[in-house]
Amino acid sequence: MGLLVVVTVLWAFSFSLIGVYLAGQVDSYFAVLMRIGLAALVFLPFLRPSLLRGRQRLALMGLGAVQLGVMYIFFYQSFLLLSVPEVLLFTIFTPIYIALLDDALFGRFTPFYLLTASLAVLGAAVIRYQGLDSGFWAGFLVVQGANLCFALGQVGYRRLSADLPETLPRHSVFGWFYLGALAVAVPAFALLGNAAGLPSSGIQWGVLLWLGLVASGLGYFLWNLGATRVDAGALAIMNNALIPAGLLVNLVIWNRDADLLRLGLGGAIIVGSLALNEWWLKRRRLETA
């Protein structure tokens, strides 16, 4: 859980950096390519191909392609169809996808996870809801594509990791994850990117370096590692903890308008769902002891 909390704080800062310095100023496909490319550079020096079998390497690359590459393409396209508040609102369904996908991949059904994930969605909706315009269904489906990719990547890594030796140094194989994402990002920029939309200031290049080396490089590694050390319910809930954390950072540093009452109420619901999940886990452990 500690790893997920650390990355939540890390990504909370990243949202504001993107919104202030990159969105609408730097080509989105180039930003994605830079982030993934820099993240790959962080882990390629540690890569030891002999530690994984060929099928495992392909599986890890596939997870990177889905969780980062395809997810980013869906996500950035959604801004062409929806307003920013609508995009943020529609991302709140990710916890439900995680709960359902985790049960499906591990061959079980846990209704309680669906309950706590739904509570997390409710908390995020309280924070982010701002009336919807008509004609938004295409955008809604595109955002759900991004949500499903992000959820599938997390749950898929949990499933793959369960079949790997506990002694395997995860940092020595995670480079395959970013190579898979690059296999999507490179052709996406070549086909859809705009070379005229490159960064034009040192600040923009600095933000991209931070996002690539730290937020994407260190962040996705720690997040996926943390995903293997918690249950599906906690992972689902933590996906929506990013919303109040991001709003809080944006309010404190950039003084953007935020409804403090909604922020507090929604955050309390998300924390409550996490506490409920932890209570249920302890109770289940006592019953099986």
TrEMBL record:
| Ranges of residues in domain EamA | 3-127
**What's a Pfam family in this record?**
EamA
**Which domain of life does the UniProt lineage start with?**
Bacteria
Keywords assigned: Membrane, Transmembrane, Transmembrane helix
**InterPro entries (UniProt xref):** EamA_dom, EmrE-like
- Membrane-crossing residue ranges in chain numbering: 29-46, 58-75, 81-100, 112-130, 136-155, 176-197, 203-223, 235-254, 260-281
Gene Ontology CC entries for this record = membrane
Q: What is this protein called?
A: Carboxylate/amino acid/amine transporter
The protein's organism comes out as Halomonas daqiaonensis
Q: What is the lineage of its organism?
A: Bacteria, Pseudomonadati, Pseudomonadota, Gammaproteobacteria, Oceanospirillales
